[in-house]
Amino acid sequence: MLTHIAWIIPLLPLAAFALIVFWGERLPARGSAVSIAAIVLAALAGLGVLGEALGGARADLTYTWVVVGSRPLTVGFVVDPLSATMLAMVGVVASLITIYSVGYMQGDPRFPRFFAYLSLFQFSMLFLVLADNFLFIYMAWELVGLCSYLLIGFWFERPSAARAAVKAFVVTRIGDFAMMIGILLLFLRIGSLRFDDIFRAIDLGGIGGPTLTLAALLVFGGAVGKSAQVPLHVWLPDAMEGPTPVSALIHAATMVAAGVYLVARTYPLFLLSPNHAALTVVAYVGGVTALFAATMGVVEDDIKRVLAYSTVSQLGYMMLGLGMLGYSAGMFHLITHAFFKALLFLGAGSVIHVVATNDMKRMGGLARAMPVTFWTFLAATLALTGIPPFAGFFSKDAVLAAAYAHDKILWLLGMAGAFVTAFYMGRLCWYTFAGEFRGEVPAAHGAPGGALHESPAVMTVPLVILALFAVFLGWVGAGALGNPFERFVHFERVAPAPESPGMLAVATAVALAGWVAAGAVYAWKIVSASGLRRACPWAYRLLVRKYYVDDLYAIVFLGLGALVIRAARAFDQYVVDGLVNALGWLARQLGLGLRYVQTGRAETYLLIVFLGVVLIVLVRLAW
Amino acid sequence: MVSGILSLTLWLPVAGALVLLTVPREQVRTIRSVALVTAILDLAASVAAGVAFDRAHAGMMQLVERVPWIPSIGVTYHLGVDGLSLPLVILTTLLTVLCIVYSWRVELRVKEYMILFLLLEVGMVGVFLALDFFLFYAFWELSLVPMFFIIGIWGGPRRTYAAIKFFLYTLVGSLAMLLAILILYFHATPRTFDLIALIQQKPLAHDLPLAILAWWGFFLSFAIKVPMFPFHTWLPDAHVEAPTAGSVLLAGVLLKLGTYGFVRIALPLLPNAFREMAGLVAVLAVIGAVYGALVAMAQTDLKKLVAYSSVSHMAYVMLAVAAAAATGARGGLQGAAATALSGATVEMLAHGIITGALFFLVGVIYDYRAHERGVLDFGGLGLRLPVYAGITMLAMLASLGLPALMGFVAEFLIFLGAFQIYPELTVITLVGVVITVAYFLWVIYRIFWGPLNPRWAQLPDVDVRERWTLVPLAALMVIVGVYPGPLVGMINLAMINILGLLR
């Protein structure tokens, strides 16, 4: 019966947020206990809803938001396989990350506030997942964006964190600008904000042709911003300035996947656009992003930024899957990725917590000191690089199979991306966990004397639980078991692409080749990394400068933008206000001039009267 | 229905001002207390009017008081409220209370200060309540005079220039309106100043050129008050020089007199002329929305920045009004027009609450703490003033249209309605929204984030009195943002009624 009261689930973290904001320090465990209790309850309820949905339960609850004109704007919540799956995933991942945060944020002066923001985020994300209409999804969309902004800038006294937060908010808002226009366009044509009404109207031909494609692409604009797809990907790597649990929760597992979820949620919009035009755009944006972002990860030394590029790239795979009619494949990759990428970030956080640096060149040899972190991290890495039988193998290959069935170019992009993924992850693992330790341990963080050590249990237990998902979750979508995920979460009008054993073998071989290449450079030193850099310096520069995209945006938006606003200010000051002041000056001069007429001397007045009479008489005569 | 509650709301501050006249000027505490009690009683009276108001029939004028005043020329003492004016009246009485609480520490000529604020309240409430042009015009002018003195006496260094500019600029507009009122009066049969009667008569319905002339008279007056581009340059000067409480009422209420005039008078009284001119108004509104945001972004003086953000936000209101005017009585778009107008009215209220709060917040840091308000003078205040930083961020996020806060409800309804009528112009206006996000985030970044500027290492956080002025506004932003249904429902009925009068 949870299905019919699913709207209560988001309210649990919201209540936690309110409690912590007002009574933070006085609550048990400085607010963290409240936050954890709320999200764990929400997760259990989410699992309950998932169970009921597996049993066939569905719900669509509607309310009136406001009445305008004679028409009520109806909004509501939906429980179906798609939202139930997301609900359970968000609940479980968020619970584990919140527990982990207790260890990670220990000793931070703004500890309660961190958990308040985390709870607010969880509310917004769960709300987003349950929305059955564009209004709610847009509201939640902005609220998760707000939480992302607040949490990236959590250590706001660091200028880099503050800048990254502003950048993230503004860049995603540009995508939201497009999304808002798309929503307005759909409302103009259909007169409703509810997905069901809109899909029905599309079926009945209420909107179609280029208008539908335009609306779909505008809505997709929001997804491009939120899911950091090209060309709005620039904010996500910088967002790594936030505390690592935030990177895991918001910038890997949940919020950034909201863009993918939005496309899946509004799939008919894309599917029914003429000639699959909108879907093709989605697929190409995803495919290009998948490879493009992966290549930038290769030259990055900051462990979290490597993972950030990896996230951008994997989100590209999800978009690619959805765009190539692989509805279930894209969603399945979203779910598996959420677990193993959250695990990767938490593992990285565990490492950073101990060595107090993000620079992989100053790590090394951590496998011995941090065995739990290492083994769980390795499991997640294998899942990410698509090595069987780990989770990512099943989901990524489903995406690639969909691409293979419809567009060979995109399939090649995806395969190249898979190779690069294995390469940068191999590089990351060898740098971090193999060899000798190259940095120094700060005494404050380490045990006495600053020795390397494993993180506390509050951090490692979530790692182990997530690792179980990274290892075993893939079987849920395994073809050999009849793909239960696909049977549950699917879209009636698209059939899954066939998977052949040959393709699986090729994909696995490509991933292994990436690992071997990474090993050749970073483990066995057959080829030296510096030699590679010297061999093609221009390519290295191009990657380190991030293809000059940030530089281009700096020139266009910051440079030109500054010129435009200065011009506007000058125009306002000298032209618009100048005219007003000139008018005032004119009136004053006129008054000063006329003063000489008002002399008060009767002779002058008489003279003027006389001259006037003469003038009038002359004019009359001349007529 | 006989009830004097509106008259009570209207004249109570005069009684308070009269009492203040008898208090010796040295008894500063008594003066403040009398002013505060008067303002609170007036707020209570307006809330009582709200309770007596039947929200199911919010489209109709209620609690009407109608007494012949100068029958020979058709002037009546005619007051009433509907779903449009009632919330604006309550906004006015609320902001006045908060202004008096905030001004507790004003030391200069306290007696005159408080009397002027109470008189200002009469003028503002009167404009919203009046249903007779004679009364309307009288209160319209009355609201001008106290503000002139408030800026001119308690203002900043360039207060004389700002006060005179404000007075002359808006006076020019008022005179234009007076001409328009006279045109209407002399074409009405029987001659009357009664607004409701004139709207039913529509004396200029069959004389389009003359109607357009009269429309220009109203337009000049209202557009200067709003202020619309290009008539806006008095606003930044007035705001920069005005004392904090003056800025709050200026932005919070006085600007709404302009938009209120458009909705209450220009729209139903001269629908034909307004339909002809709607395109022009819409274009000016769009320019104002984007241009105001751009100029706001170029400001480093916080007061100027908020002033230009007002230009931008009030332009959203005007876009909605123009959209509604353009549909006229066309059947198919009535829903869109009602949506846009409802959004416009919510935006008036939202802007009053949010920008009122923003000016208080600038005052909190400028008047009694840093004596600076340059965006670049601060840095890292979030470390030192967490409560102040939290409320300011909330108000700025509300202003930039973050969902679940009041500004979003207004903007969403405006865009939803206006897009159906002027899609291209609405898209351009949305660009202004993106710029708004950028400048408010920039301000938060410069003032509250980054390392703490050592100059401000000793600043105290907001005190109890400041908290009392800010918390009600912050609470309203959240409550209406989360649960807009009742307010929008009431406003919507009034808007449907006004649109019905366009025929």
Structure description:
- The complex is a heterodimer of chains A (623) and B (503).
- With 623 residues, chain A is mainly α.
- In chain A, 71% of the residues lie in helices and 3% in strands.
- Chain A has a two-stranded antiparallel sheet with strand order 1-2.
- In chain A, helix 17 runs antiparallel to helix 19.
- Chain A is globular and about 115 Å long.
- Chain A starts with 7 loop residues before the first helix and ends with a helix.
- About 1% of the residues of chain A have low confidence.
- Chain B has 503 residues and is mostly helical.
- Chain B has one domain.
- Helices cover 74% and strands 3% of the residues of chain B.
- Chain B is built from 19 helices and two strands.
- In chain B, strands 1-2 form a two-stranded antiparallel ribbon.
- Chain B starts with a helix and ends with a helix.
- The interface between A and B is large, with 46 and 61 residues.
Keywords summarizing the entry:
heterodimer, A: 623 residues, mainly alpha, two-stranded antiparallel ribbon, 26 helices, 2 strands, globular, B: 503 residues, 19 helices, 74% helix
The span between the termini of chain B is 28 Å
Count the domains of chain B.
1
Distance between the termini of chain A: 100 Å
Give the ordered list of helices and strands of chain B: HHEEHHHHHHHHHHHHHHHHH
**Secondary structure category of chain A:** mainly alpha
* Helix count, DSSP H or I runs of 4 or more residues of chain A: 26
Q: What is the 3D shape of chain A?
A: globular
Describe the SSE topology.
The complex is a heterodimer of chains A (623) and B (503).
Chain A: H1 8-23, H2 32-54, E1 59-68, E2 71-79, H3 81-104, H4 111-130, H5 134-152, H6 159-190, H7 195-203, H8 209-226, H9 235-238, H10 244-253, H11 258-265, H12 267-271, H13 277-297, H14 303-323, H15 327-355, H16 366-369, H17 371-385, H18 391-406, H19 408-433, H20 457-472, H21 484-488, H22 501-522, H23 529-535, H24 537-544, H25 549-594, H26 602-622
Antiparallel strand pairs in A: 1-2
Helix pairs in contact in A: 1-2, 1-4, 2-3, 2-4, 3-4, 3-10, 3-15, 3-20, 4-5, 5-6, 5-10, 6-8, 8-11, 8-13, 10-15, 13-14, 13-19, 14-15, 14-18, 14-19, 15-17, 15-18, 15-20, 17-19, 17-20, 18-19, 18-22, 19-22
Chain B: H1 5-22, H2 28-52, E1 62-70, E2 75-81, H3 85-102, H4 110-129, H5 133-154, H6 159-187, H7 195-201, H8 208-225, H9 234-241, H10 244-269, H11 271-297, H12 302-327, H13 334-370, H14 381-384, H15 386-399, H16 406-419, H17 423-448, H18 464-482, H19 485-500
Antiparallel strand pairs in B: 1-2
Helix pairs in contact in B: 1-2, 1-4, 2-3, 2-4, 3-4, 3-10, 3-13, 3-18, 4-5, 5-6, 5-10, 6-8, 6-9, 8-10, 8-11, 9-12, 10-12, 10-13, 11-12, 11-17, 12-13, 12-16, 12-17, 13-15, 13-16, 13-18, 13-19, 15-17, 15-18, 16-18
